[in-house]
Design brief:
3-stranded antiparallel β-sheet, two-stranded parallel ribbon, 13 helices, elongated, tRNA binding, ATP binding, tRNAsynth_Ia_anticodon-bd
């Protein structure tokens, strides 16, 4: 999401948008250790066999004043046996700016919190130079800047040949376009537009909204969800075309992140209602799953969906609960244990899974009355349905967590 939205992360407004989107974008800027890191890189540059002074003689085009030296990237690639880099990479003019950018990357890596600092087996990463590492670097970069980021990758390998630089990978994102733009739009304007649209759509659905902290948090969360799904539902390497018209976003559009959050909130409301009824003595507490007879789950899916003859309740189990681990496995394997530098993060797999789950759950929930009359002979079916939907809720929460989205408890 960050690289899709922000062409220049140094801009203060762009960083504010990332904060509002809850994107933790690492940066070493402002660190007191940065000048020392740049000096260390300069010393390493002076000792590198791939570095050479830039001659400024007759017939030579004038070089920028901040050029320190040149390095031969092509020969370095060949010496190291690296694969997957742009074949046009050759001579790189090293400047103060490039060294500062490299120092910021180093500082960001040093600030990373490693939950389990145990070296990974080298056999899992055949291109890791025979060394294990507990830190992997993924360069998330726009397609326009891929060439420059590969230069920085190679310069880092050249000047800091530690184990962690051997696990550098590149995730390349396609461009973001707008339909019929009347004027250029920045990330902050885009965020505020979506927030206004989400507020207006919520007013249309729920009526006048109280201007209190609870509603502000709900609108903010719905806005973040809408933007994340809008950005991440398309394969990262493909172009996104944004439709900025008011009709393009709603609280219940079936392709919207807000629709997913709405159904997640419906589940939370269901279980809150049940718990309140238990506390009043209307229903008994939910028994363990091992004590239930799930054969009473027989609710058929709607015929108009093309699912006549199949059980809607079992559809939730076989189409969503059981395949969910496989969906996660398909979504991201970082870093990829293969040769080359490019990796894939199939966020669209999780987004489409959640949207389809929301559609089928919404159809089921609108058709079936879960909390029935408090008669003992109906409890078995109610308990079984609650256990099934409890598992559906867990899948919602887990899948949303992979997109760094908190589940809404109410709307």
């Amino acid at each position: 999401v960050g690289v899709r939205l922000v062409p220049a992360l140094a801009e203060e407004g762009s960083r504010e948008v990332l904060r509002q989107l809850r994107v933790d974008w690492p940066s070493g800027s402002g660190s007191l250790a940065l000048p020392d890191a740049v000096s260390a890189l300069k010393r390493a540059l002076g000792q590198s066999p791939c570095a050479a002074a830039c001659e400024q003689g007759l017939g030579t085009a004038a070089l920028p004043e901040d050029v320190i030296c040149k390095v031969h990237l092509r020969s370095f690639i060949e010496q190291q046996g690296l694969v997957g880099y742009d074949p046009n990479l050759d001579i790189l003019l090293v400047t103060e700016g490039k060294l500062r950018a490299l120092a910021e990357l180093q500082q960001a890596v040093l600030q990373c919190v490693v939950s389990n600092p145990v070296a990974l087996p080298a056999s899992r990463f055949p291109d890791a130079g025979g060394q294990g590492s507990c830190c992997s670097i993924v360069h998330v970069v726009s397609c326009e800047e891929e060439f420059q980021q590969q230069q920085l990758d190679l310069l880092w390998r050249m000047l800091d040949p530690g184990a962690h630089t051997a696990l550098q990978k590149h995730l390349v994102c396609g461009p973001v376009k707008m339909t019929n733009p009347s004027s250029p739009m920045g990330a902050d304007q885009y965020f505020q537009l979506r927030k206004r649209q989400m507020y207006e759509a919520s007013v249309m659905k729920y009526g006048d909204l109280a201007q209190d902290e609870a509603w502000t948090e709900v609108i903010d969360t719905l806005t973040v969800a809408a933007i994340r799904f809008e950005m991440l539902s398309t394969a990262h390497r493909s172009q996104i075309t944004l439709d900025l018209e008011d009709s393009s976003i709603s609280t219940k559009g079936t392709k919207s992140g807000a629709f997913v959050m709405y159904n997640c909130a419906r589940l939370a409301t269901l279980f809150d209602t049940y718990q309140q009824a238990v506390e009043r003595g209307t229903y008994p507490p939910l028994p363990p799953a091992s004590e239930l007879n799930f054969s009473c789950l027989r609710e058929e899916a709607s015929a108009e969906k093309g699912n006549a003859g199949t059980c809607g309740e079992w559809l939730l189990l076989f189409n969503y609960l059981l395949p969910f681990p496989e969906v996660l496995q398909q979504a991201a394997q970082l870093p990829a244990p293969t040769k080359g530098i490019r990796i894939m993060a199939n966020t669209e797999t999780v987004c489409k899974f959640l949207i389809q789950l929301s559609m089928d759950f919404s159809s089921y929930y609108s058709r079936v009355h879960i909390l029935g009359e408090p008669f003992p002979h109906l409890f078995d079916q109610m308990f079984s349905r609650l256990r099934l939907l409890g598992a559906v809720r867990d899948v919602f929460h887990s899948a949303l967590a992979t997109l760094h989205l908190p589940p809404l408890s109410q709307i």
